[in-house]
Amino acid sequence: MTRKQRRLYFVLLGMLALGAAVALVLTAISDSLVYFYSPTDIVSQRIPEGRRMRVGGLVEADSVKKDGKTVTFKVTDITNALNVTYAGILPDLFREGQGVVVEGRMEKDGLFHAAEVLAKHDENYMPKEVADALKKSGQWNDGKKK
Amino acid sequence: MIAEIGHFALVLALCVALVQAVVPLMGANRGWASWMAVAGPASSLQFLFIAVAFGALTNAYVTSDFSVMNVAQNSHTEKPMLYKVAGVWGNHEGSLLLWITILALFGFAVTLFGRNLPPGLKSRALSVQAMISVGFLAFILLTSNPFARLEPPPMDGNGLNPMLQDPGLAFHPPMLYLGYVGFSMAFSFAIAALLEGRVDAAWARWVRPWTLAAWIFLTGGIILGSWWAYYTLGWGGWWYWDPVENASFMPWLAGTALLHSAVVVEKRDALKSWTILLAIVAFGFSLLGTFLVRSGVLTSVHAFATDPARGVFVLLLLCLAVGGSFTLYAMRAPAMKMGGLFSPISREGALLLNNVLMATGAATVLLGTLYPLIADALNLGKVSVGPPFFNAVFLPLMAPMVVVMAVGPMMAWKRGDLAGVLGRLKFAAAIALGGAMLVWFLQGGSAGPWWTGIGFALALWLGLGTLLDLAERIRLFQAPGEALGRAARLPRSSWGMVLAHLGVAVFIVGLTASSAWTTERIQSQKIGETVTVGGFGITLTGVHEVPGPNYTASRASFDISKDGSVIDVMQPEKRTYRMPPRPTTTAAIRSGLLGDLYVVIGDADPKGGYVTRLYFNPCIPWLWAGGALLVIGGLISLGDRRHRIGAPAQAATRRVAA
């Protein structure tokens, strides 16, 4: 095998792998991207029911209600609030007034059914999306940032 | 006072690193031996100073010196001693200090073990190593001084995030950093080789053990991290394709590829510029990982102590290091002569295929990890890329690689006999196929996911293929009497390869079974109520308050019964720490060969029960066993005579001296 042939082999192999990767990425990305919205986005835009998405904001004070394994609470960006229902154990750092990201779907009952509730390991830490959402609604207090 | 000594030692280390970055490099370019000789003592001195600084910070933590701001913010007198020591790196500043300490340790190791290195290569590599040091020392001193004082000192500290108060903190970050930073060795040697314009088998022999050592630590660190997340986060999962996880996985992929391509450089003098590129990429990924983890630009469940402003500095270092080395690579790599020729059907060919797939896999993980940043920058909306993307893209790329993994080791170098190898593997193929059908039948056909059969077939194929390869190497079937002796004489690197590949097979079993057949029950359970999960009856018998060293726990007791008789008691806890006042969850796990029973206790329900989360996670221990096999394989391979750095030459000089 000459050098030229080998180079051709390298190039073909690389192209093949890259081609496969591109094909896989293109088929996967449209279905698996999860968009992030603020509660205001959800209220003001028509968001399709049944699509998986993330919503971030603060857990509204006095909104957490537990009934058996089901928990309902409101996620707010101060301007608007979204009713969320979740079945399961909330993360340890889930607290009223703290930042939270919920992932799930809007259902016909008008509630956001969360499949996952993400609160952070670190309580000083505000998810970037939540900070941006709060900034957008003009409620961000810069003094909170270190 | 001791804190000031630590600070001062860091400044001195920076000065030494500056000298080490410039003088030996110039000496190597001009051929001045005395200038080159500066590299060794400088790296020892640099390590000494940084070790002093690290010792000073550790001292501040152990003695709870709250006049040091870092200690006041992250420690507490009540904290157990283990977490006082491990707490040194449980925060931004301290973890960077650990990073730089390990970097200096590796530089020192070159000086210690590298007496037989060609002086030009050694001095250039140590200079490159020092340049990285300069960057990170400047970062620490300018933005993240761990020795900053607090006036007046508080009575007590803020305490360590309770999530981190786990023995995992003592092992996971140092191991991970030993892996990340260990790739700096391959990087420095790669840059030195580019500067010299020469890459040969001797170079590869030097780089392999360092890369292998880094890879062992990184593998161990990732597995430990997954295990820690598994038992501490309380959702029963161990891998989430989270940005922080990906940040450690990308260097692992590049490092694994590098490990394999360096073999080709050493044995066959081929794939040189590709190997150099991988060395640069592996360390580039390590720096990227440091940036992603430290800056918090991506939302992660594992993000601790992040600071976007200081993250920019790491980004700058990353751009300098990667940009500079790629430029150098573009200038110098074309001049590198290609060595041994080989046919695509050969062991080199198989290793190359493995490399291409690994690299492509790493590229897709990179794309998925950074896509949210790209989309945000291009105003495409805020998105997150989660497990569905990675599972759909990465796993299909790895499947053919696993197929090749069984074939490659059985092929000859240079020109292999594919038909012959496949012929020898036909039993493995038959059993893999049979196994896949059995699994399909056992899970009730399409009642389970469609890919379980593929997963088990791949694991069986790889496991049996690897064992068959071992059997052939020791001629188990031809001459069974001599097989044991042959096994003992087999090079350790071959044993390492066999164990590591078996580890991958075992891991695939755990991965497939745990992703496909996990059962989860969430309910409000009253005292005395029984729930059945995975064939076990789980009865909540009571919840009691139990005091801990710096927390109080509400500990639940569950009776575990099988076929009507109680076989075990499991006690998960929900702890509330005093400082900082925060709850954590401690799951109770009962491990078995077939799977884990995983029990989490939640809050009390107003109607008189407790919310409980009960899982049966099949084959989870196989994941840890697979990871352990990878690490053990790596360690055994590291013990190979040919990997012992400069061993033959040193033994020769000793004999002469004697």
TrEMBL record, chain A:
Sequence ranges on the Cytoplasmic membrane side: 1-7
Give the source's domain of life in one word: Bacteria
Keyword Iron appears in the UniProt entry: yes
- Which Gene Ontology cellular component terms are annotated? plasma membrane
Q: Name one GO molecular function term.
A: heme binding
Residues on the membrane's Extracellular side span: 29-146
| UniProt keyword terms in alphabetical order | Cell membrane, Cytochrome c-type biogenesis, Heme, Iron, Membrane, Metal-binding, Signal-anchor, Transmembrane, Transmembrane helix
Binding of heme occurs at 121, 125
Q: Which GO terms describe its biological process?
A: cytochrome complex assembly; protein-heme linkage
Recorded hits in Pfam families, A to Z, give:
CcmE
Q: How does it sit in the membrane?
A: Single-pass type II membrane protein
Recorded hits in InterPro entries, A to Z, give: CcmE, CcmE-like_sf, NA-bd_OB-fold
Localization of this protein? Cell inner membrane; Cell membrane
- Family matches, as SUPFAM superfamilies: Heme chaperone CcmE
> What does the sequence similarity comment in the record state about its family?
Belongs to the CcmE/CycJ family.
Provide the function of this protein: Heme chaperone required for the biogenesis of c-type cytochromes. Transiently binds heme delivered by CcmC and transfers the heme to apo-cytochromes in a process facilitated by CcmF and CcmH.
UniProt name for this protein: Cytochrome c-type biogenesis protein CcmE
**Which species is the source of this protein?**
Paramagnetospirillum kuznetsovii
Q: What is the lineage of its organism?
A: Bacteria, Pseudomonadati, Pseudomonadota, Alphaproteobacteria, Rhodospirillales
Gene name linked to the record? ccmE
UniProtKB/TrEMBL annotation, chain B:
List where the protein spans the membrane: 6-26, 38-62, 96-114, 126-148, 175-195, 207-229, 249-265, 274-292, 312-331, 352-374, 394-413, 425-442, 448-468, 495-517, 622-639
Q: Where in the cell is it found?
A: Cell inner membrane
Which GO terms are recorded in the biological process aspect for this UniProt protein?
Answer: cytochrome complex assembly
User: Start and end of every Cytochrome c-type biogenesis protein CcmF C-terminal domain?
Assistant: 315-641
- Entry keyword annotation includes Translocase: no
The alphabetical list of record keywords is:
Cell inner membrane, Cell membrane, Cytochrome c-type biogenesis, Lyase, Membrane, Transmembrane, Transmembrane helix
Q: Which Pfam families match?
A: CcmF_C (PF16327), Cytochrom_C_asm (PF01578)
GO cellular-component terms in the record? plasma membrane
Gene Ontology MF term list: heme binding; heme transmembrane transporter activity; lyase activity
Its function, per the record, reads: Required for the biogenesis of c-type cytochromes. Possible subunit of a heme lyase.
Name-wise, this protein is Heme lyase NrfEFG subunit NrfE
